[in-house]
Amino acid sequence: MNDEQLLRYSRHVLLNEIGIEGQQRLLDAHALVVGAGGLGSPAAMYLGAAGVGRLTLVDHDSVDFTNLQRQIAHDLSRLGLPKVDSLRMRVQSVNPDVQVRALVRRADGALLDELVAAADVVLDCTDNYATRQAVNAACVRQRRPLVAGAAIGFEGQISVYDVRMPHSPCYACLFPPDAAFEETACATMGVFAPLVGIIGTTQAAEALKLLAGIGEPLAGRLLMLDARAMRWDEVRLARQAGCRVCGVRC
């Protein structure tokens, strides 16, 4: 690190658990953020501010007026702009040293295999079940840790799925791909504005811990938040031997 970086990241360097070596690991790291909306905005902004050297952002959507209630990376000047471009500009306005690649694409299987293989950690910040399953499957195939968050109404959840760990489940162990699932959209149910900030920021924290090699990751644990009572509940998770996604490969 040069003198400017030592100053910028000094509050990390002062933490014994991170220090200069941990911060250097962040500077050398590459994070993939799938989704540039409510969860992706705070997640990517904190990853960039913390000094993760490379970020790849993937989202096919554009900034809409109704997004501004909760998607804090975007503003009135960005209406109609691809969300990944808006988020890239926001991250680089905070930390211009971060290399940000913005892809206006749908996250399909072929693209995800390519992007996940090149990343050190993956953050699922999407809002639909099919994409979550595709991201998880790619992470299992490429053996990359996945930090998955979700938020709707007043309820959120987050966990880490890391099949490199012997007993850690994948996302499909908990939510099987073929399970009947009723999709709920923000447009019909709504979402409490700060909720996506809480979950997205927690995703950034888990990703930074994984990249710096510190703390205890959320692997094998699902945190669920009821924002009405501001109460967190934790459920222990186990790998399912019969899982169609990770049961054979791991």
Compile the SSE list and pairings.
Blueprint: H1 3-8, H2 10-13, H3 19-27, E1 30-34, H4 40-50, E2 54-58, H5 83-94, E3 99-103, H6 109-118, E4 121-124, H7 129-142, E5 146-152, E6 155-161, H8 171-174, H9 186-189, H10 193-212, E7 221-226, E8 231-236
Parallel strand pairs: 1-2, 1-4, 2-3, 4-5
Antiparallel strand pairs: 5-6, 6-7, 7-8
Helix pairs in contact: 4-5, 4-10, 6-7
Question: Mind explaining what this structure looks like?
Answer:
- The protein has 250 residues and is of the alpha/beta class.
- It has one domain (3-236): Rossmann fold (3-Layer(aba) Sandwich), CATH 3.40.50.720.
- The protein has helices at 3-8, 10-13, 19-27, 40-50, 83-94, 109-118, 129-142, 171-174, 186-189, 193-212, and strands at residues 30-34, 54-58, 99-103, 121-124, 146-152, 155-161, 221-226, 231-236.
- Strands 3-2-1-4-5-6-7-8 form an eight-stranded mixed β-sheet, sandwiched between helices.
- It is globular, with a radius of gyration of 17 Å.
- The model has no long low-confidence stretch (mean pLDDT 94).
